[in-house]
Design brief:
With about 230 residues, the protein is an alpha/beta fold. It has seven helices and ten strands. Belongs to the ABC transporter superfamily.
């Protein structure tokens, strides 16, 4: 299988040159193949969020190289990085970050409209995704009227709205109770498989990580054997 995401020698230091300097990433190497779902486990403060932000072009490493779908992201300008991120990368966080004034349908349609999709097409895609995760009957409700599990399912759909090739998730079910977390994670995995996504999913839950194709561990700024 060809590679969807490649990180090579990734380094990141905060407050460089100051007494409070913290080196978070110390030469991280990892890859995610097309269609592969990889789990990332790490203790708190190990740098997993920083790593995901760099992988998703939200942050720039101090050293190393990021490739997405075979394209080297090193040295790209902000506009090009934004274009790659908007079209090719989906993000899911621990908290859903849905826009409270919009319905579930609108929240999933909006990223498509921002990518210049026709409204009818965006709404049809949004409804189809919501149907796949069992939330279509709630499409007209705002986030406050949805349960925690429903909100996170809508967030999954929003992340996939523009048909990205790569999904990055940071503790995507960490804000849910164990039973709901288990059900919602199964939904995420099913949706990712159906859409043919490559995914890097950070989680503290070893049982959830074990359901993925492969598991990596980030410790002391490096990838170590699990």
């Amino acid at each position: 299988m060809s590679e969807m995401l490649g990180l090579s020698g990734i380094e990141k230091t905060y407050n460089a040159g100051k007494p409070s300097e913290v080196q978070v990433l110390r030469g991280v190497d990892l890859s995610v193949a097309r269609g592969e779902i990889v789990g990332l486990i790490a203790p708190s403060g190990a740098g997993k969020s920083t790593l995901l932000h760099i992988a998703g072009l939200l942050d720039v490493p101090d050293g190393g190289r990021v490739t997405i779908a075979g394209e080297d992201m090193t040295g790209l300008g902000d506009r090009r990085r934004t274009g790659v991120r908007r079209a090719g990368v989906g993000f899911i966080y621990q908290f859903h970050h849905l826009l409270p004034e919009f319905t579930a349908l609108d929240n999933v349609a909006l990223p498509q409209l921002a990518n210049a999709a026709p409204q009818a097409e965006a709404e049809a895609r949004a409804l189809a995704l919501l149907d796949k995760v069992g939330v279509a009957p709630r499409a007209g409700h705002r986030p406050a009227a949805l349960s925690g599990g429903e909100q996170q399912r809508v967030a999954f759909c929003r992340a996939l709205a523009n048909r990205p090739g790569l999904l990055l998730a940071d503790e995507p079910t960490g804000n849910l109770d164990p039973e709901t977390s288990d059900r919602v994670f199964d939904t995420l995995m099913g949706l990712a498989r159906e859409e043919g996504l490559s995914a890097l999913i950070a989680t503290h839950n070893l049982d959830l990580a074990a359901r993925m194709d492969r598991v990596l561990r980030l410790e002391a700024g490096r990838i170590v054997p699990v």
